[in-house]
Amino acid sequence: MLARSFPPIADARARLLVLGSMPGVASLTAGAYYAHPRNAFWPIMGELFGAGPELPYEARRKRLITAGVAVWDVLQSCRREGSLDTAIERESEIANDFAPFFADQPALRLVAFNGQKAETAFRRRVTPMLDVATTARLRFVRLPSTSPAHAGRTFHEKLAAWRDGLASVIN
Predict the structure, then answer these.
(1) Cβ–Cβ < 8 Å for 106, 10
(2) H/E element holding 3?
(3) Long-range contacts for 42-49 (Cβ within 8 Å, ≥24 apart)?
(4) Separation of alpha carbons 166 and 119, rounded Å
(5) First to last CA, the chain
(6) Which NCBIfam families did the record assign (predicted)?
(7) What is the pLDDT of residue 149?
(8) How far apart are CA 34 and CA 45, in angstroms?
(9) pLDDT (tens digit, 9 = 90+) per residue, 91-150?
């Protein structure tokens, strides 16, 4: 099936951009980032920025924006059966247009990849299109995937890694 990502959660105050690869089936169905109930993203955002799953989705979005956190996906579209990153057909990947996005985010300093696939797709599809000045002002970090499919770490291990990786932008 052809999957298409959502517009970013962002405004010009963003200091941090969290990048996933492509929303899963539960997220696409709900029209919301990280909608799978076992995905650790919103519980981690709750611990770090007060944007936890107990809040309505729109309130979580607003809390992230207020905290200087942007959320987007590397891929604009791709073909994939199911939700797993490993099912993404590599030749079908089309990246989002990051050059104007980064230009509209003057405060952005840190790009955090939510898992290996997001980082791999970004480095393959996006980095070659960026100018040196953009990449020089940004720091990039890969964090453990919040996906329930990434069961190699407990929630507390993922939270600790995210807290450490984002320490420079957490108030």
Answers:
(1) no
(2) strand 2-4
(3) 43/155, 43/159, 44/146, 44/158, 44/159, 44/162, 45/69, 47/159, 47/163, 48/162, 48/163, 48/166, 48/170, 49/170
(4) 16
(5) 40
(6) hypoxanDNAglyco (TIGR04274)
(7) 80
(8) 11
(9) 888 999 999 999 999 999 999 999 999 999 999 999 999 999 999 999 999 999 999 887
pLDDT in tens, 28-70: 999 999 999 999 999 999 999 999 999 999 999 999 999 999 9
**Residue 171 included in any domain:** no
Provide the CATH number for the domain around residue 138: 3.40.470.10
Q: Is 131 exposed, middle or buried (0-12, 13-18, 19+ CB in 10 A)?
A: exposed
Residue 170 lies in a domain: no
Q: Is 88 helix (H, G, I), strand (E, B) or coil?
A: strand
Tell me the residue type at 156: H
Catalytic residue among 39, 96, 114, 171: 39
Q: What is the pTM of this model?
A: 0.95
39 is annotated as an active-site residue: yes
Confidence band (pLDDT; 50, 70, 90) for 171? Answer: low
Q: Which of the two residues, 52 and 90, has the higher pLDDT score?
A: 52
Beta bridge partners of 67: none
Domain of 84 in residue numbering reads as 2-165
